[in-house]
Amino acid sequence: MGPELVHVVDDDPAMRDSLAFLLETAGFAVRLYESGTDLLERRAMVVSGCVLTDIRMPGIDGLDLIRRLREAGVTLPIVVMTGHGDVPLAVEAMKRGACDFIEKPFDDEVLLRALRSALSQGRTALAADPGVQDFRRRVETLSERERQVLDRLVAGATSKEIGRDLDISPRTVEIYRAKLMAKTQAATLQDLVRRAVLAGLA
């Protein structure tokens, strides 16, 4: 069994080079694509491993790429790289079939963990994951206000926007956010969004 293959799609040459170096150093085989079109044109080669794609690219962006790959019958796990604060895009990507997302700038270890996880289990395994069932149960313990804050966080709203929406101060939103993170045992906002999407709550 050879090294696991990662198909990297990013329009930034410097980013492609640094990802290739990082992944090859970590023991992955890497194929680089400068655009979504480039990957789609060579999709006959995309039969194993996983896809790592940037979400914001000229031409075919990450969301469109996911849709087209799925329509073409490519079922490989897809991990999406988003800019900081692109939570709504990340949610949309997961609804379209991405199995995970990471926010730039990311720690190398976070990326490697996401890729290993994507490679080791398909999305179906994730959805049936007892952790997802457990997350649903925890969400049921939230107060009405905590649930309102959760829904808006997962939709990508900031504390200020949530405060305006619910007519409470951003500081109060932060308190609700801390409580709901503790109750759902989500480590980060990214973790919260991922679990909410997998649990069908986003």
UniProtKB/TrEMBL annotation:
Domain HTH luxR-type: 135-200
Record-listed 4-aspartylphosphate modification sites: 54
PROSITE patterns named in the record: HTH_LUXR_2, RESPONSE_REGULATORY
Key word Transcription present: yes
Gene Ontology molecular function: any one: DNA binding
Alphabetical list of CDD domains matching this protein: LuxR_C_like, REC_FixJ
Response regulatory domain mapped to chain residues: 5-119
A GO BP entry: regulation of DNA-templated transcription
Keywords assigned by UniProt, alphabetized: DNA-binding, Phosphoprotein, Transcription, Transcription regulation, Two-component regulatory system
Name of this protein: Response regulator FixJ
Species per Swiss-Prot/TrEMBL record: Methylobacterium tarhaniae
